[in-house]
Amino acid sequence: MHGGGARPADQFRGRRTRVGGDDVEAQRALNAEAPQIPHLLARIRALFAGHSRKLTVTVILVLVSAALSVLPPLLIERAFDVGLFPPSGGPNLQALSVLVALMIAAYVTTALLGVWQTWLTATVGNSVMGELRVRLFSHLQAMELSFFTRTKTGVIQSRLQNDVGGVAGVLTNTVSSVLGNSVTVIAAFVAMLLLNWQLTVVALILMPILVVAQRRVGQVRARIAAKTQESLSDMTAITQETLSVSGILLSKSFTRQKTEIARYADENDNQVHLQVSQQMSGQWFFAMVSIFLSSIPAIVYLVAGLLLTGGATDITAGTIVAFTTVQARLLFPLLGLMRVALDLQTSSALFARIFQYLDLTPAISDAPDARPVPEVTGRVQFDAVTFAYPDAAEASRPTLDAVSFTIEPGEFAAFVGPSGAGKTTVSYLIPRFYEASAGRVLFSGVDVRDLAQESLVSHIGIVSQETYLFHATIAENLRYAKPDATDAELETAARAANIHNTIESFPDGYDTVVGERGYRLSGGEKQRVAIARVLLKDPEVLILDEATSALDAISERVVQAALDTASRGRTTIAIAHRLSTIVTADVIFVIDGGRVVESGTHRELLALRGTYATLYADQAPERLPEP
User: Fold this and answer.
1) Which of 25, 101, 299, 398 has the greatest count of CB atoms below 10 A from its CB?
2) Domain count, the chain
3) What CA–CA distance (Å, rounded) separates 465 from 474?
4) 73/296 Cα distance (integer angstroms)
5) 51 CB-near residues (< 8 Å, 6+ apart)
6) Domain containing residue 560
7) pLDDT digits (tens, 9 = 90+) for 248-306
8) Which residue intervals define the domain ABC transmembrane type-1 in the entry (predicted)?
């Protein structure tokens, strides 16, 4: 598949994908932004297909546990009326012992079933989450480079962490909540009716008052929760900006530490105030719950007394105790069911956002008949290649316009030209990080679109201007190119890159941790480690993308010597800004306005007195020879 492409990622905003449990309106608004995915429910069911047995057992456990939860109140009625206060005589200890044993058995059984249910739901939920996370990560690895240049890293991380992480709670919370609360509420109502229908009417009249109170308090907490979340986001942003290596360097270089401390302290004070407000709003809510929970049984006692005074004969002490016990267990399942629709919608929204990424089609992928590089010669050819970046305006000129050239095996070729002329784009097209809009890019005589990309890239080494090192040891960074490399191979590569002696001078040698993005090393040291890493890969074609442009003169000479060693015996393609680094190149291609306007050796191009000569004169006018 050569064509096609991912949809624009502008729509993938860096929004929170899950908000506080009380922030109902905000969650509904966020759910409404979820993409519309065809056959969403069928695709969700397919994710759980491999766990059908555990899911079936989970449903059975939820139903049994919910049903058992209302059994103890019924046993309590019998314990009072038959065991403690029988119609005749004193307590019936034999009957009471049996009833107590049944109650304890019900409690123990419910607890054990709850542990089993929790294990099953946690296992299934987290297994599906883990499978989805790996599947999504693998799919993102296959996406083309342009997807990452136009999509914020935070948005991608949100898909992997927040959305996929929320999937585990779908089964654990939503499914079990719907089933368990529904059965509990139904069973409780049935038990209450069996105990006494008049008292059931009284409880049903009073229950909505508590539900309304919960909603009102919940709305207040929702507003505070939203503000608290925003404040936490601001504090996190300040931390990331100021406590990163780059942020610390910036604040110290401008002596703005006090300003940053004050900014963080102000936001921290706001966070403290919001946290106190949130805690207090919760206290008022629980106080109201306590009042109502205490009031309903009291009112039930009063009504029971009135009924007994009126001659009711089906109300006993056991009936009243059992009834209030059931009623007390009815509130929170009712509140849980009120959120069922929102929870189901939230779960669907999470899955929809995940499937949205999984449905993205990589713009660049292997053709069905793609094959490994048949014979690596190191020849690189552009045949009338035209290229425009995917997000470029249609009316704009292409970055490369009908560019043709040939680099023979073992040649050192350089590309120079004004900034924005298209030099780096050439280096992206050779390993097929981008797809040519027209024309052909050939590697060892074969169109790169006919080659398996993994095979193609395995024969190409790239050293860029911005060296990326992991927060790991030097040895681990080097072995990224060859995981099974021996210590001797590391040393050989490091010596060739002119960095071995420097590494040995460190107290921990090759076990030195380089820090985030290699900040513990100088620019020249990082670049030479990167060169050693490429040498360990031992590619037939080496691409140097302005590998020394960010270095000082001394570091440049050291790194350039390492590059000269690295390029020996390989086809080398250098994208150069400093022309002094490529004067010995076998061929120099001058790109201007997306076209190759000149080509030749350094001396030949100077003799032309054209674009190259002008660029060279601007950098070193005293070196320009007389005509």
Assistant:
1) 398
2) 3
3) 19
4) 17
5) 124, 127, 128
6) 380-619
7) 766 766 677 788 888 888 888 888 888 787 667 656 666 766 676 667 777 777 888 88
8) 57-346
